[in-house]
Design brief:
The structure is a single chain. By secondary structure, the protein is α/β, with parallel strands linked by helices. The radius of gyration is 16 Å and the shape is globular. Helices cover 33% and strands 17% of the residues. It has a single domain, classed as Alpha/Beta hydrolase fold, catalytic domain (Rossmann fold), CATH 3.40.50.1820. The termini are far apart. It has a seven-stranded mixed sheet with strand order 1-3-2-4-5-6-7, with helices on both faces. Helix 4 links the parallel strand 6 and strand 7. Helix 1 packs across helix 2. The longest helix has 22 residues. Pfam families: Abhydrolase_2 (PF02230). Keywords: Hydrolase. GO terms for molecular function: hydrolase activity.
Length: 222
C-alpha cells in the first residue's frame, strides 16, 4: 500500500457540470470495497437536488481477482487497520481541499466508504458538516479529533441491516458505543436487510439530508 494514497480527479462523477456548482453544498459518495465511482451514483435521483453530488473512486486496487477499488486493505473480515483508514481519510481531505473549496461538504459512504466518512470527521472535525454511514463502522483507536467531535457532535446517520454478516459484530458493537458520544446520532437497524441498501433506508437518508439543508438555510440567514 502506498504511504500516501491520492484520489484521481479524472474519474470523479459529478451530478452537475462545473459552471452550475457555485457555492451549493456538496455531497460526496464513497463506495465500498471492490466497487468504483459508478456504484453509488445510481442513488442521485433519490437524493435532494439542492446538493451537488460527487462520486469519487477510492485510491487503491484490491488484490486480484477482486474488481474495482478499495479505500484500504482488508486481510480477512477482522483485518482492518485503523491507520490505513486514516490514510484514506487524509487522501479524501486533500481532494476536498483541491476540488470543492469553501462549499459545505457532507459525506455518504457505504461499507468501507462509511468507515472512511467517519474517519474523515475524526481526522478533520471542522472540514465536513455531516456524515451518512450505511453498513459501515467506526475504526478503532483514538485520534486527536475525537475530543473535538465529542464537543462539536456533528450530525451522523448510521443505517445497517439486521442480517448484515459482512461487518464483524465486534465492530458494530464498538460503533454503537462510539457514535453517541462523538456525534448527534440518528439511524436505524433494518430487519432482514443484508449488506446492502433498501428503499426504506434511502427514505430515511433523504429525510436526514433534507434536515441538513434546512439547517444550512437557517444558518445562512443569521
Amino acid at each position: 500500500m502506498s504511504a500516501h494514497p491520492s484520489l484521481d480527479p479524472s474519474v470523479v462523477r459529478w451530478s452537475v457540470p462545473a459552471h452550475e456548482r457555485g457555492d451549493r453544498p456538496v455531497l460526496l459518495l464513497l463506495h465500498g470495497y471492490g466497487s468504483d465511482e459508478h456504484d453509488l451514483f445510481g442513488l442521485v435521483p433519490s437524493l435532494p437536488p439542492a446538493f451537488v453530488v460527487a462520486s469519487v473512486r477510492a485510491p487503491l486496487a484490491p488484490p486480484w481477482p477482486m474488481p474495482g477499488a478499495s479505500w484500504y486493505p482488508i486481510e480477512g473480515l477482522d483485518g482492518r487497520d485503523p491507520d490505513a483508514v486514516t490514510l484514506a481519510a487524509r487522501a479524501l481531505l486533500s481532494w476536498i481541499q483541491d476540488a470543492v473549496g469553501e462549499a459545505p461538504v457532507g459525506l455518504l459512504g457505504f461499507s468501507q466508504g462509511g468507515a472512511v466518512a467517519l474517519q474523515t470527521l475524526r481526522a478533520a472535525p471542522y472540514a465536513v458538516s455531516f456524515a451518512v454511514v450505511l453498513a459501515g463502522y467506526a475504526a478503532g483507536g483514538e485520534l486527536p479529533g475525537d475530543i473535538v467531535l465529542a464537543e462539536r457532535r456533528p450530525p451522523v446517520f448510521w443505517g445497517r441491516g439486521a442480517a448484515d454478516d459482512v461487518i464483524p459484530p465486534a465492530l458494530v458493537d464498538a460503533t454503537a458505543q462510539w457514535l453517541p458520544v462523538h456525534s448527534e446520532l440518528s439511524g436505524r437497524v433494518y430487519p432482514g436487510l443484508t449488506h446492502s441498501i433498501s428503499q426504506d433506508e434511502l427514505d430515511d437518508v433523504r429525510a436526514f439530508l433534507d434536515a441538513r439543508l434546512g439547517e444550512m438555510a437557517a444558518q445562512a440567514t443569521t
